[in-house]
């Protein structure tokens, strides 16, 4: 015969499992009585102290130590009833600690598995990338010899046959290909070795020297060039690489500023860093994501780039130099027809 569903009967042992005590106070807060017969850990003096403290605080329920309490107002006065929740709290703390330990062990196990399998997954990609960089370096070195021979042979032919448009085209394209090869080798070396010759050198003097040479070229092209260089700035880095960085940024601004345009150069201290800014007017179609300007072989305008002779490696090399010095480089729209390249170098 099945039992009818209904509430389960309360165990007769339950009242004896609970430990509690109570204190009755008058409306003025005086102690009338204290009942500590159902608990051994609390004496009458402690129970009265708990009740009087809660009377003064005005709280009606909550916890004091590991006892849960509630205040009842009746005809006899105000009664505070305290229930011992120590075992429940200890059980909860043990469960919480065990849960945290198990979760931590599980997290560490997952991280170990991710690290183990990610190495296997990423290793072929990393090896392929390393092989690609080595190929660029090796192929660049191999190309240098035939390019040098071609250039020398063309010079000999020019001496024997006289000047020719064909020979001039061969010389020009050979020179461009040699420049591209050198840039690729340099960029690959920066990523492979990153061996900088770190010294302290006067950055302001280096900037002034580099800017003067480009100011002369800008004047010949009818472009306005302004420079603001804070004096007495020094930098701890590779002087040769920083010189190339300045030359790349200024050459890029000079090439891609429109005729009768303007170029602005700024070098100053900004908080604990050095700010290098090169800005120029331009009518080139810039990408929506200006980070693309630092991608290899990126060219905003193909026709314009064929006139300037660039291959889209200048800003990639500049980025590699800045990153090797633990700095940041980024591009900004500084106006409707203006582009600014900013470099932050740590001091």
Tell me what the structure shows.
- The protein contains eight helices and twelve strands.
- By secondary structure, it is an alpha+beta fold.
- The strands form three sheets. Strands 2-1-5-4-3 form a five-stranded antiparallel β-sheet, covered by helices on one side.
- A hairpin with a 2-residue loop joins β3 (61-64) and β4 (67-73).
- The longest helix is centred in the middle third of the chain and has 76 residues, at 86-161.
- The model is unreliable at 302-306 (pLDDT under 50).
What is the topology?
Layout: H1 14-17, E1 20-25, E2 31-35, H2 44-57, E3 61-64, E4 67-73, E5 78-84, H3 86-161, H4 165-192, E6 198-202, H5 203-220, E7 224-229, E8 234-238, H6 239-256, E9 262-270, E10 273-281, H7 302-308, H8 314-324, E11 328-335, E12 338-346
Parallel strand pairs: 7-9
Antiparallel strand pairs: 1-2, 1-5, 3-4, 4-5, 6-8, 9-10, 10-12, 11-12
